[in-house]
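Hi R.,

As promised on Friday, here is the backbone we talked about, encoded as structure tokens. Could you run it through your design pipeline when you get a chance and send me back a sequence?
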């Protein structure tokens, strides 16, 4: 959603870059390169904030693109073009499509790709998405990376007309994906993989208060979505990004409820959701990185709108961390080998939190407060439920976390909860 910052590029890399199951019937998770590897292509979707030294994620993209023979096409059309960047001439401050394209191409080569090239597309050069020369460049690649910015720029650059038909370049990328290429993306580059009802903006509190509307709006707090969606590479759920950093669980739940979706993949920063068999009914995921991916399950959820405001009951929240897998067809998390089921030992109460979605209006807000409350509840035996509220009032929303039937927590070090499965979430207004 938010543009990739024009961070200093002087020191790109200072040094060389060099499941326990929930159901007994399922096989143990074996990592990303297990037998779940698709005969076709795959996706690597990152929640934004991808760090230069994240060798695990960059390496996974490169490996899936052919390892030492990988050729990565970098698409940064979600960035502003050079004509709109006041720092276009400064390599340390620039943050435009060409500058960001060169930045990522250099990073992929430093991480071991045989070649990485910017695909020259942006909102000032929309016609190039139907250029035979650019199509030929795409067809020479074995993998693709979509950078961050504003996903609506990808829509206007690579899709055509009200029906969102593919440009020639997007059709070529889609064909490469079907025949084995990897398609990766960070922030807006992950969002654009969505199918129908792709989010186009919004903050959690305003989303819960006002609901969603189709379209793209100048107001960044307004929950908007595009009914036609993005590229449709991922089909089993909606996608949201920067989840913990900007507290987007609220907007994700509201959008899914409003549009009739029963699942959201909420991606955290510098962490990837690797998807095998994308676009079909056998999508299988693996989490890679230091944070996690939340799976929001609304199959049993019920929303209600009244004079007091909007409410949601019986949603489920699973938080998957590095090495955990998820089978979208069976709705089954598979916890990575080496993690054990957590037996709560703490008797401390869950800390009170009055800013559950990390409001931008709260100068003392704490990032990751939604996840922090969930993990604190999982780690204590003093209580089976906990509440946290929004910073804003008029109305104030209360989120209730409950260890309902099916809930489990897992740890890798025996001390605190890391992975969580099937924690019940209720949201009420007051």
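Update: got your reply. Pasting your designed sequence below so it's all in one thread:
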């Amino acid at each position: 959603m938010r543009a990739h910052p024009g961070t200093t590029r002087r020191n790109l890399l200072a040094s060389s870059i060099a499941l326990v199951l929930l159901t007994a019937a399922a096989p143990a998770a074996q990592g990303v390169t297990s037998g779940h590897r698709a005969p076709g292509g795959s996706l690597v979707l990152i929640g934004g904030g991808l760090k230069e030294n994240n060798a695990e994620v960059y390496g996974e993209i490169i490996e899936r693109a052919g390892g030492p023979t990988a050729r990565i096409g970098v698409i940064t059309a979600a960035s502003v073009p050079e004509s709109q960047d006041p720092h276009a001439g400064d390599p340390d401050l620039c943050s435009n499509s060409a500058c960001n394209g060169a930045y990522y191409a250099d990073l992929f080569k430093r991480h071991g790709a045989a070649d990485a090239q910017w695909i020259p597309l942006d909102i000032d050069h929309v016609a190039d998405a139907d250029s035979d020369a650019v199509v030929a460049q795409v067809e020479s690649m074995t993998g693709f990376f979509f950078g961050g910015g504003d996903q609506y720029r990808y829509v206007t650059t690579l899709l055509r007309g009200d029906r969102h038909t593919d440009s020639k370049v997007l059709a070529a990328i889609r064909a490469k994906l079907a025949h084995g290429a990897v398609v990766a993306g960070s922030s807006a580059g992950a969002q654009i993989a969505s199918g129908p009802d792709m989010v186009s903006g919004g903050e959690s509190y305003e989303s819960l208060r006002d609901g969603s509307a189709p379209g793209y709006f100048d107001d960044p707090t307004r929950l908007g979505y595009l009914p036609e969606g993005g590229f449709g590479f991922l089909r089993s759920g909606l996608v949201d990004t920067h989840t913990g950093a900007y507290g987007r669980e609220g907007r994700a739940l509201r959008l899914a409820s409003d549009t009739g979706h029963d699942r959201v993949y909420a991606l955290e920063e510098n962490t990837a959701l690797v998807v095998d068999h994308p676009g079909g009914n056998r999508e299988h995921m693996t989490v890679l990185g230091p944070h996690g991916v939340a799976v929001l399950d609304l199959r049993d959820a019920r929303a209600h709108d009244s004079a007091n405001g909007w409410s949601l009951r019986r949603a489920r929240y699973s938080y998957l961390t590095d090495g955990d897998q998820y089978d979208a067809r069976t709705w089954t998390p598979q916890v990575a080998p080496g993690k054990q089921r957590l037996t709560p030992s703490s008797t401390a109460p869950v800390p009170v939190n009055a800013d559950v979605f990390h409001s931008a209006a709260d100068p003392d807000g704490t990032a990751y407060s939604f996840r922090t409350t969930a993990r604190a509840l999982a780690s204590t035996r003093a209580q089976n439920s906990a509440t946290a509220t929004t910073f804003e009032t008029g109305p104030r929303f209360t989120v209730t976390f409950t260890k309902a039937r099916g809930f489990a927590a897992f740890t890798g070090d025996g001390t605190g909860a890391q992975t969580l499965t099937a924690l019940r979430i209720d949201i009420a207004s007051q």
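One thing I noticed while checking it: Confidence is low (pLDDT under 50) at residues 1-31, 33-38.

Thanks again,
M.
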